[in-house]
């Protein structure tokens, strides 16, 4: 930035200090960013994106060795959980959380060096996403927008469904084929011919798989079943409200749990597509906007960097009309 604007020789150091050492609170900036995006994309939905930031050394906050699910490779990286607003064509990041494990949260010296606030403790990915959602909802941003979320762990589903149902927030959650649940009648009674015992998303969907003649050529085969989730985590409570399982049987099967009882399976599948748009946005931010270029090690510095990268992504997004004076 200093080179591009032909600033003085001391500017790079000043900009670095602004990101890594200054005390500005990025919360207000993120709320304003979310308000701008919400106004630009009416009818947007919330999505969650993960970014893995590979780092060298041992002192960058949140750094730990993880296995990349795409390749099976073990790398040292930070994991950022991003909350996005999108309309099916565009997806804009508006808030971030850094995934910290007990090796960081439980080490007083590490916390001191990285300037991790005292109220920051270990929280799983899904809890960080809900924390951001609550923060922005409390600020009046997209208060009724549904949440579209691709889950990475089966035990996350019960936590999320219970939490979102208590807040009357609609959702579409993509789950794994082995997600425990049981097929029921509307209202929660066991379905005739079914034992009512926990099964899996794949087994329930296969039992309701439509005949090949039930769809038009080229359209995906979709099924829809009333279900109840089963808790796999002792700390989770299975929500007793009836949800719907929507499954896509064509090609690589996919499964979604949703609270939207009035939407057809095609509409649910279209909502789930928002996660794919978010994945593409994560790649673009990663590759084009310097997400890996943060050289600091502190917790506040990481959040400043991610906030500025989000604002830059919105400002440079080719399909979002933005007046410069809004930024």
Summarize the structure.
The protein is α+β, with helices and mostly antiparallel strands. It is built from nine helices and eleven strands.
Written overview of the protein:
This protein has helices at residues 11-20, 26-40, 102-105, 108-114, 125-138, 156-166, 201-207, 265-288, 299-316; strands spanning 45-54, 64-67, 74-86, 91-98, 147-150, 171-175, 180-183, 199-200, 222-229, 243-248, 254-258. It is of the alpha+beta class and 327 residues long. Strands 1, 2, 3, 4, 5, 6, 7, 8, 9, 10 and 11 form an 11-stranded mixed beta sheet that branches. A hairpin with a 6-residue loop joins strand 2 and strand 3 (74-86). The radius of gyration is 22 Å and the shape is globular.
**Stretches with pLDDT under 50, minimum 5 residues:** 323-327
Overall pLDDT? 84
Category by helix and strand content: alpha+beta
Biggest β-sheet strands, sense, barrel: 11 strands, mixed
What proportion of the residues is helical, as a percent range? 25-40%
Globally, the shape reads globular
The oligomerization state is: single chain
| Count of helix runs | 9
The percentage of residues in β strands lies in: 15-25%
What distance separates the N and C termini?
16 Å
What's the helix-strand series? HHEEEEHHHEHEEEHEEEHH
Can you count the beta strands?
A: 11
| Gyration radius over CA | 22 Å
């Amino acid at each position: 930035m200093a080179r591009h604007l032909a600033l003085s020789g001391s500017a790079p150091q000043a900009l670095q200090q602004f990101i890594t050492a200054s005390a500005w609170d990025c919360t207000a900036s993120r709320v304003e960013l979310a308000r701008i995006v919400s106004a630009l994309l009416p009818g947007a939905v919330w999505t969650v994106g993960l970014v893995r930031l590979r780092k060298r050394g041992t002192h960058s906050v949140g750094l730990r060795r993880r296995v990349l699910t795409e390749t099976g490779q073990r790398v040292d990286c930070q994991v950022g959980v991003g909350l996005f607003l999108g309309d099916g064509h565009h997806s804009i990041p508006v808030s971030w959380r850094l995934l910290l494990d007990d090796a960081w949260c439980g080490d007083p010296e590490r916390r001191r060096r990285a300037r991790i606030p005292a109220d920051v403790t270990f929280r799983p990915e899904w809890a960080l996403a809900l924390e951001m959602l609550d923060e922005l909802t409390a600020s009046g941003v997209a208060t009724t927008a549904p949440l579209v979320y691709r889950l990475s762990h089966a035990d996350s589903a019960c936590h999320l469904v219970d939490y979102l149902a208590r807040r009357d927030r609609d959702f579409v959650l993509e789950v794994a084929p082995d997600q425990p649940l049981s097929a029921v009648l509307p209202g929660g009674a066991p379905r005739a011919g079914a034992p009512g015992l926990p099964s899996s998303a794949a087994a329930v969907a296969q039992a309701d798989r439509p005949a090949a003649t039930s769809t038009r050529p080229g359209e995906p085969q979709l099924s829809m079943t009333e279900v109840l989730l089963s808790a796999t985590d002792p700390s989770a409570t299975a929500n007793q409200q009836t949800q719907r399982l929507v499954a896509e049987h064509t090609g690589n099967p996919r499964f979604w749990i949703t609270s939207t009882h009035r939407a057809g399976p095609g509409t649910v599948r279209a909502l789930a597509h928002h996660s794919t748009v978010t994945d593409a946005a994560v790649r673009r931010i990663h590759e084009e906007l310097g997400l890996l270029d943060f050289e600091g090690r502190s917790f506040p510095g990481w959040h400043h960097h991610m906030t500025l990268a989000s604002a830059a992504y919105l400002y440079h997004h080719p399909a979002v009309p933005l007046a410069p004076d809004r930024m």
